[in-house]
Amino acid sequence: MRNDNAARLDDPFYRKQVSRNILIIFGCMLLGLSGRLFYLQIIKGSYHQKLSEQNSMRLQIVHATRGLMYDRNGALIARNRPSYQVAILPTQLKEPKQVFANLMRFQDSSGNRLFDSALVTWSLERGRWKKFQPLVILEDASPEVVAMVEEHQLDLPGVVTVMDSRRSYPFGYNAAHVLGYMDEIKEDELDAFTDRKERTGDSIPYQKGDRIGRKGLEKTYEPYFRGRDGVRYIKVNAFGKEMEVIKEMPQVQPVAGYNLVTTLDMRLQCLAESLMADTLRGAVVAIDPRNGEVLAMASSPRMDGNIFSLSREKRSKEWAKLALDPAMPLNNRATVGGYEPGSTWKALMNVAALQSGKVTPTEHMPKGCTGGYRFGNRTWRCWDPKGHGSLGMIDAFTQSCDVYYYQVGLEIGMDIINRVAREFGLGTATGIDLDDERSGMLVDSASYMRRFGKRGWTWSRGLVLNLSIGQGQIATPLQLANYCAGLANGKVVYRPHLVKEVRDRAGKTVQTFQPQVIQQLDMTPEQHDIVLKAMEAVVNSPKGTGGRARLPDVIVGGKTGSAENPHGEKTHALFIGAAPLYQPEIAIAVVLENVGHGGSIAAPIAGAIFREYFKRKMAGT
Amino acid sequence: MLVTLGLIMLIGLSAVYSASWDQPGQKWLKQCLYVVLGVIAIGAIFLVPPKVFYAMAYPAWIVSLFPLLYIIIFKANSVERWIALPGGFNLQPSELTKVALLLAMARLLSFQPIQIARPKTLIAPAALFFFPFILVLNEPNLSTALSFVAMTGVMAYWSGLSLREIFLLASPVLSVALSFHNLAWAGLFIVLILIVGLSRINLKIGALILLINIIAGFGAIFVWNKVLYEHQRDRILTFSSPQRDPLGAGYQVLQSKVAIGSGQLVGKGYLNGTQTNLSFLPEEHTDFIFSVWAEQFGFLGCIALLALYLYLLHRILRTGMDIRNRFVSLVGAGVAGILGFHIIVNVSMTIGMMPVTGLPLPFMSYGGSFLISCLMMIGLLINLRAHGHNL
């Protein structure tokens, strides 16, 4: 028994039997396969022959509907419109030269060729080895062109029109910087997805020719908008026209993308944009201080996101115009524009002065204002050469007296000033849900030497004077608005955000974005009260610089600024303000480049926005 | 045997050429290079005294595990199953493991055949089999792991086990697969109990086999639900039902069926395959090379090709049968097992009878590692046949 099997192994007859059995099993399997081959090739042979000749079965990608965008009141601000593409189906192309010649005969009303000969040649060439991709030769074709191509289908075998959808922004220029735009996916982005597939096995969510969010909310929330494409098999006729869906084949239904409810209030947004002529450069940002929701974010000059949905030719023409414009309309100045905060900085100086314990609200600085302040061997001027005399904190703030703040700065030092600035979110990016954001810049001796030491400049106490009146730091309009929201709120600084809710197609809320605190403010109620009183006086006292933001029945508080800058004769005009000052609902920052004083130019814009906001609130909407 | 082999490789080369002659990349030239390399490998192997293979069987088995471990440790987050070599070549360690396992198993079984009545004889072969099996399974490369099962099964049969006994021993693998379907799993148990009852197998051993099946089944369910991540589960599901991913495998199978079917009785003629020339298959020169051949040469061409494979297998088995040396004889059986498995699975896949697993067709599919490892096995066999009588 022990060597039973071993003996078998040596037995030639046993081996012969085993080998025959293995061969029989294998042969039976092959016979089964042959049976199947017989069925496929002989019984169903002519059917498959026909299928392969016409090549009538085609895999079609069913694009998922992209999610829409709404403003906070339900107005539709980004939607999808139908768009036709004319494409070549290489498998159906029998006579490329003839088709090329026929395509070149199409002309528009002014006698120009409709189809770009270089693009068509390239597509025909490429079609020889990329045979199963439709190759687009005319994007976003007009209905007339589509009709023409369909009419001449007999002359154009292998040329088809494909319906697709493109993004459209009903408000056009308004909020275009915030909404962003879409663009065709790039080769290297596709490659990145392919790499990821090889590493993790995740499927590739994009095909060549797909469009992807390129800027603004379209980019940030791309995964929400995108949904998931479906696939199905369709039967096409000899010209490549789609006839029917083949039901027996596996199908994947597309899943529509999510809709987004933004925090924008389009009425305020449109108003803000109408208040800034497109010849001006600047930005307006309005934030709700209670939660960081951005109510309006305008940047001037503007652009129209719709141009990115046009055909390649028109798009590149428009794009060149925007990209070469020295005013840089493609930039969202609200988040990437860096400006010196000027006198709007002084509100923060008040907070720092009170917190340092070295300055009391009623205390006057050693020297009164005579239109200038002598420090070392140089005189630093006050903006008003007539001088303001000797003032306490609230009066100095109201009249924006530089001399007072020079002395405050020297007294309390840059350390505490910058600490408070950081508390208000200055010097670091706010982390808003947009792709491009500058972090701004705060200046202390260390950062100054890092930046300018190479040029041989050295930190001196004199610089503290400039920095005390907001000359030298850099902040974005968004940071200024958020800083103002913090001043009004007095307790915390929220992360500004642009999206309230994510909803599915049926309108059900799937995700809500909660307010997010980024900084706790270290301010006692008494200190806060003084800061607010000072801001109230700027707008409401007769001597205040911000009177043009005043409202009859709502208390507005704020601060004007006129920042000197190397780029022009006139100063940048700034205004930050909040209302109702003691239960704040809206905080605004206005920055306009090279137009003059904040009080005369920026404050009225904020005033108009406040008026619209509260008018509607009184009316009950 | 060599003539048959040469014919098959010629067919393979011409099919690779017809699939890629109009595309950039010169795949067929590269394939020629692989063939030449493979033939050189056969020659080189022929010069080695067979004693060396016998002596090296166990050390080679151990060494071949290291590249697999390397992949598991350093490529944990990827599905790559190869190690990049200088010069743009990729090495698939599982192919080396295959040859090493073949040798080691042949050596072990040649002096210690498995006897189901003596469970001790099971331990060593099981260990020999399970380490590479688990490592390759983990790569993840389910199809190659299953080809190990086929190879070991044929060798076990050759060494004296009956088909029933092999079924019993392989049943835990079935349990893992079937445990997700209660009825099917119950059916498997009924069959197992019948076999245990009808054959004169020790009851204790029968009970042990049933117990192992139960553990394997519940273990699989536990691992599936608790251990695996979502994406890992997805990958396995897509493996077993490619229709889940109609963009990929489902589409290929459909087009492959159309290509094969449209070949009809005699095919469309060489280089006239419209489906092939339209590049409908991304993997046409690798996994779907059979469809390329079938479209151009039709049903008769397919039958001829399958007959060639059958004859090749017959020749290999014949070698194993004629030789008195147990080791050589077992190597022959193992080679036949693994080639047969590849042929059946690959052809079934192209005609839509099995999931698309990425298992290539021996001597025909484009790809270096696999071709060379197949040729090495043949070279080994020729060598042993010539010199191995008095090992």
Notes on the protein architecture:
- The complex is a heterodimer of chains A (about 625) and B (about 400).
- By secondary structure, chain A is an alpha+beta fold.
- Chain A contains 22 helices and 21 strands.
- In chain A, the strands form six sheets. In chain A, strands 2, 3, 4, 5, 10, 16 and 17 form a seven-stranded mixed sheet that branches.
- In chain A, helix 11 runs antiparallel to helix 22 (about 600-620) and helix 14 (about 345-355) packs across helix 17 (about 415-425).
- The longest helix of chain A has about 30 residues, at about 10-45.
- The model of chain A has no long low-confidence stretch (mean pLDDT about 90).
- In chain B, a hairpin with a 3-residue loop joins strand 1 (about 85) and strand 2 (about 90).
- The longest helix of chain B is centred in the last third of the chain and has 34 residues, at about 290-320.
- In chain B, helix 3 (about 50-75) packs across helix 5 (about 120-140) and helix 8 (about 180-200) runs antiparallel to helix 9.
- The chains are: A alpha+beta (about 625), B mainly alpha (about 400).
- Chains A and B meet through helix 1, helix 2, helix 3 and helix 8 of A and helix 6, helix 10, helix 11, helix 13 and helix 14 of B.
Keywords:
heterodimer, A: 621 residues, alpha+beta, Penicillin-binding protein 2a (Domain 2), Beta-lactamase, B: 391 residues, mainly alpha, 2 domains, two-stranded antiparallel ribbon, globular
Helix content of chain A: 25-40%
CATH topology of the largest domain in chain A: Beta-lactamase
- Proportion of beta-strand residues of chain A: 15-25%
Provide the structure class of chain B.
Answer: mainly alpha
Rounded Rg of chain A: 34 Å
Largest interface: A-B, 58 and 72 residues
Instruction: Choose one word for the global shape of chain B.
Output: globular
Unreliable parts of chain B: none
Relative helix content of chain B: over 70%
